[in-house]
Amino acid sequence: MDYQKIIIEADGEEAELNCYLWSESPEYAKGRKRPCILILPGGGYSFVSDREGEPVAFQFLAEGCQAAVLRYSVLPARYPTALIQAAKAMVLLREHAEEWNIDPDKIIVQGFSAGGHLAASLGIFWNRPFLGTRLGVEAKRIRPAGMILCYPVISSGEYCHGDSFVNLLGNSYDALVEEMSLEKQVHSQVPPVFIWHTFSDDCVPVENSLLFVMALRKQGIPTEFHMYPRGVHGLSLANSLTLSIQGHGIQEECQSWMALAKVWLKNL
Q1: Are residues 51 and 236 in contact, defined by beta-carbon separation less than 8 angstroms?
Q2: The pTM is what?
Q3: pLDDT, tens digit, for every residue of 111-146?
Q4: Which of 1, 31, 132, 189 is most deeply buried (CB count within 10 A of its CB)?
Q5: Which residues are 194's β-sheet partners?
Q6: CA separation, residue 145 to residues 71, 72, 108, 142 (Å)
Q7: Which of 232, 266, 224 is nearest to 51 (CA)?
């Protein structure tokens, strides 16, 4: 495996992009380009969860994908710093596609919780002029080929995870909180989505995913959605590999999400 750590700057803040890449060998079939997963861990825009980063990357590596984990800027950084960093990471992966044996048309963004909000923001706002202008690239170079969203923060309305939006927006809360309610921003050029949540999530209610799925449906965006009956927020892989220090995080029925996401990825 080849490991690359790259610093990405935006608004005077630095993010760390950790790339986990298959080393090439003359024993492998030639000309194979691999999908790449850009992983955005959660943490309420106040920290970046280790449990939702590297362990997930290794699962996708085992499937033959390339993987990258973005440790984006959080509190006290404010919107749109993390979004610009995520967009820069997407562009960087495309720029290195030939060198790193990545299929540039199959770079997927994946996000957990508040990282799911960031991933969905990238999938929705990729064609906003301010992003292309800031990065100096065509909008199509920012667009992910698909989104994998795990118990995502989506809505700033009745079912919101309030701290995420306060941490993201700060003094711009009143001006931007409505715009950051992503179920209201879905348009016809949003990429395909795989999304899962638990019915019993009492931190980020499942209505976040339900509202988003309904908005995607209205726009005709291909979507696969799974709602599991039980499970706390922040399960990550839902197995012993990502057991939290508090002793939670194992939910056997939720462990299937990774296998389902891999099938979805193959069919994308």
Answers
A1: yes
A2: 0.98
A3: 999 999 999 999 999 999 999 999 999 999 999 999
A4: 132
A5: 148, 224
A6: 21, 20, 5, 10
A7: 232
